[in-house]
Design goal:
A: 467 residues; alpha/beta; Rossmann fold; Oxidized Rhodanese, domain 1; eight-stranded mixed beta sheet; five-stranded parallel beta sheet; 17 helices; 13 strands; 32% helix; 13% strand; B: 111 residues; alpha+beta; two-stranded antiparallel ribbon; 30% strand
Amino acid sequence: MGEGTRAGAPTNGTRNGHSRRLDDDEFDRYSRQMVVPGMGKEGQLRLINGRVLIIGAGGLGCPAAQYIAGAGVGTIGIVDGDVVEASNLHRQVGHATSRIGMLKVDSLITHLRGLNHLPTYIAHPFPLTPQNAADIIAGYDLVLDCTDNPATRYLISDVCVLLCKPLVSAASVQKSGQLIVLNCPPSPQGLVDGGPYAPCYRCCFRKPPPPSSLVSCGEAGIMGPVVGMMGVAQAGEAIKILASALHLPPTEPSANQNQNLHQPTLLIYTYDLDAAPGPYTFRALKMSSRKPSCPSCGAGSTLSLEGIRAGDPNYEQFCAVNTPRCVLPLSERVTPAEFHAARERGELPRHVVLDTREREHFSFGSIEGAVNVPFGRLLMKAAAVQRDGGEVRGVLPEGVLTQTAGEGGGEGVEQIFVVCRRGLDSQEAVEKLKELGLEEGGRRRIVDIKGGMKAWKEEVDPGFPYI
Amino acid sequence: MSDATEAAATIPITVDFSGGLEMLFDNQRRHAVDLPAADPGGKPATIVLLIDHLCKHLMKDPRTDMFVLDNHIRPGILVLINDADWELEGEEAYEIQPRDNILFVSTLHGG
């Protein structure tokens, strides 16, 4: 029956399954992919005997899961603790309007069963944590990282290294996407001699970016087809790896070198809203192999499953998840409710509201009379004034600060209220405006509206179109 | 094979930004850059000189810490030299060649 040199995943305990007959349902269902050169019955049986874990049932996980289920991977596990929201649906195509509020894992599995009832679906309806990661991942042959934060990405990679699981990793935000296959074929932690070996996530991305540089899909937005393309590509890689048994140690030592598996390609997709696809819409970048100095898979690595369970390394700290950037004293902050009440009582005759959100966010609505200078633009204008000199009031739109505070028959603006989306940028903006001297020796107050437009919606205007 | 002394003035290269970094460079992804062929000390131009040059001459946004931290490329940015990880090319010490393409990519985490 043509047992190949790589056939027989030793971990799934169904060796006999590799030479069995396909039943009629399987034969019909998978016929179009089985006739593709290189697939055949052998490749299909490897998929049927394969076990894939999809971590994250969102914009990457949904499209990835559809193709993995459609292709007939026999066991599909899905990890996610979130529930479906309406704002997910433009990209998370495994969910449905009728399933808003349902756990994402249950919603996605409902969809997948409709597509293909043959695989075994396993729901893990909670977030992946250092405590549960190893127990979950151990039950699968291959892992897809479809998560949305650096701390979980490092955790997944570390556990995959320790359990010798290949990892297909993708990420996407706004108008770009990235994809890379890691740890494939897996080699034992610490092995450097006789290499090169495939790298892990830490080999490629040594340190996480500082939290201040991170933007989430919620804040920066995300185009559905961009993240979808990356999720589908993850499924493509997963199917390829399982069907061709690339995740197993090769029978000939030179095989991996020939396939360049040890220097994986980082695929980058860059999408333009206002331009046709160009030569750099897709870029394929060559990454380096396992680093002997890697703290996870390298020669001196002390990483262990016991350590991870006990909180070492500390992923949250490593990625500094909750570090606030800047906190102003209370005297320079007001809550949206306080601001609104004072304004209603007529206590703020000469004030201006400066909204530092991006133009797109501002376009849906703002506090009445607010002027919009996006945060990045404000900093740029401030830097230009500080570098080249010029009128400090020019950092705000023309006409907003026409007069010095307290002058001109009491017409000058005496208070500037700064508001942003969630209350971080606005605090930095207050500091910056003060640094520029816009307080004018104390004659003008510059104040942060606490918690941004999110808090405004919660405290003042429940109907506000906050994004 | 032009005259070595003439060619010494600047090195023509292209510099690309991706993954959101273009935001710091006037929202433009590709820049043609004429890099001084040597640093003030007379040593051949390396990635170190390029980064300094980009911060001083190309970056419009004042948030240099989004690109450089403690005089090094900030964590979370990959540097690709002619489409290969700079670790394959000597990292910061790589000597820049005419017509090189240097790509700076911010790693993404969303999903």
